[in-house]
Amino acid sequence: MGLTYSQQNYDKDRYTQPYLASQPADAAAGKAIAITGATGNGLGLKFAKLAASLGASKIILLNRPSERSRKALADLAEAVPAGCTVTHVDCDLNSLDAVKAAAPALAAQCDGKLDVLMLNSGIMASPDETTEDGYNREIQVNVIAQLLLLKLAMPLLEAAAAARGEARFCFQSSGARLGSTPIIDAAFDKVPPQGLPEELRGDKGGGMMSAGPAWKRYHQTKLANSLSMMILHEKLQEKGSKVKALCCAPGLAATDLQVRSWAHHLHRAHAPWFAKWVFYGPKYAVL
After folding, report:
1. Assign residue 40 a region: left if phi > 0, alpha if psi is -120 to 50, beta otherwise?
2. Residue range 247-263: mean pLDDT, rounded
3. Which of 136, 160, 184, 193 has the fewest CB within 10 Å, making it most exposed?
4. From CA 276, how far away is CA 5, in angstroms rounded?
5. 200, 184 in Cβ contact below 8 A?
6. In this structure, are residues 245 and 233 in contact, taking their beta carbons and an 8 Å threshold?
7. What string of DSSP letters covers 219-235?
8. Could you tell me if 36 and 93 are in contact, meaning their C-beta atoms sit under 8 angstroms apart?
9. How would residue 285 be classed by pLDDT, with cut points 50, 70 and 90?
10. 199: buried, middle or exposed (CB in 10 Å: 19+, 13-18, 0-12)?
């Protein structure tokens, strides 16, 4: 690929149409599907539209209240076919209390049965910040808060599985899970006064493949997403559950994740060619 980049090239979708062609037109018929992080130019909103095109009866967006979430809801409502209901539940992953408050609203929206929970929300290489709950913000948003949401939604998934034969949840991982550092247990504890473990502390970005703390934190969250799926799969199998634990890694995708990251702005300031090549996006495309 060298140092060349074309936004138009990355906007080509190599996989969706072949996948859809292999599925029954009503593959999601009658299903209720909830998605975290479905705003802007991202995978969550695209997944929502594809699920609706396969016959889903209800799409529930679990987003932080914002203008972006309101726009996403309106855009989706315009795009879905007749027979699909689109709704929104406030769910700010920066606050565990907000996640707990979202659970009964989610249950009400899906009438107590949820077929799919897509745990898509995530931030990448963000500043070293601590939430009101005492956790590193990126680790809470990408892992802890979504695991809490999954725990609270599990009865809804089990109810759908009992009624319709199966249900599923899916974590959104990344190739970043393949970094060289094994899981660091202390990263997922509340941040002590001295901060995170030294290798995860601070805002040093470094290159995409560097050992900078900002990227190591992201690596830890994506590794945790994959490990969570594996552990929960085993536990669900042991109890004979019909709920499936899944995880996906989308690969290189033309979304706003990169251009909204803190590290992107660092690279734009200190290595503009690298920022444009790696952290691509509609606003920073090398044409």
Report:
1. left
2. 61
3. 193
4. 8
5. yes
6. yes
7. HHHHHHHHHHHHHHHHH
8. yes
9. very low
10. middle
